[in-house]
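Format notes (please read before filing issues)

Several people have asked whether sequences and structure tokens are stored in separate files. They are not. Every record keeps both together, in the order shown below: the sequence lines, then the token lines. Line labels are part of the format and must not be stripped during preprocessing.
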Amino acid sequence: MAVNIDTVYQKVLATANKEQRGYITPQEFNLYADQAQMDIFERYFHDIRQAETRMETNTEFSSSLDMLEEKLSVFRVNDQVVYPDSHDGTITLPEDLHRLGSVVYCKREQGGYGKYLNIEVEEIDKKDIGYLLNTIHTTPTARRPAFIRLTNNKIKIYPSHPEVYGSDTLISYDGPAQFFNLLGTLSFSNGSTSATYTDSNNEGLIMQYYLDSGHMPSIVDGSKNTNSYSVTSSNVYLSPDTLIVAPFPTSTGVLTLSKPAIQTGTTTVFIAVGNVKCNYIKKPLTPSWSYVEINGAALHNPGSSIDFQLHASEESALVARVLQLAGITLKDNNLLQIASAEEGKIIQNQKQ
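Then the structure lines:
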């Protein structure tokens, strides 16, 4: 499905040389390639909006909307579990997120083992959340949760949970983005995935967190109270995004972790419950034409190159767009006109 980056580069060079426009270096090409891919990728969303407003015959292989959805399908990520950063309901979204879709709260049905409800978390404009919180009938609840966008990659879930420490009654709290103090302390050995805790009540709590959400909880180093800390800090014992890899301890007083501890010691930790999932469109990987230099010439190295992630049908559009960007940079009006005319024909054909 992907477009081979060397194929595009060779076609770009062949066209540029044919027009006697000179050599486009690998460094220049990589810059143009990234911009070209993002331009075409971003155009999908505008084309989908236009296609949804047009009347089309329902044909199996030529529907504009179906073709656009197929091109985007490789970038769709569904049911991605995300974990809260702290007790206030703040969640850092995946690093490769481009556009956020729906956010859902996964909750076990009352009295039902293995049966879960996916409750959609409604997005609220940041300017309106204050009014909702001040009115009893509109305040978000566990059955009617809401979220606001703090930044492009951070959201905040409501209702949030109070910051409570050292109590085995924490299990009574219900709702999305739960973030609780693990009872007692946890002891680590550098390089080990086993950790020992001091409070036996943790077995029931961790099991309950797992059963309630259907996903393994994340464990957060209490010395930083966030997943975004530097793992080189002298008082940090866990790597970010460390998960408890079993729904209950494999032996009394011992947790098995998904990542080894980074130093020996004892600390308090937090449990970030995995009961929030999101659907999103991820960003394409940055394309890269990698090479090795032999006798002064750049020879393609496919092992370390990154192909375009766009649909195979976009090869001609990528060639035309790279040539267009090269013409702009080189201030070559003829090359720019040739590439722009070719790109215009491709876009017109796709929209017919």
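For reference, the curators noted about this record: The first strand starts at residue 76 and ends at 82. Helices lie at 5-18, 26-53, 64-73, 129-133, 202-213, 315-330, 333-351.
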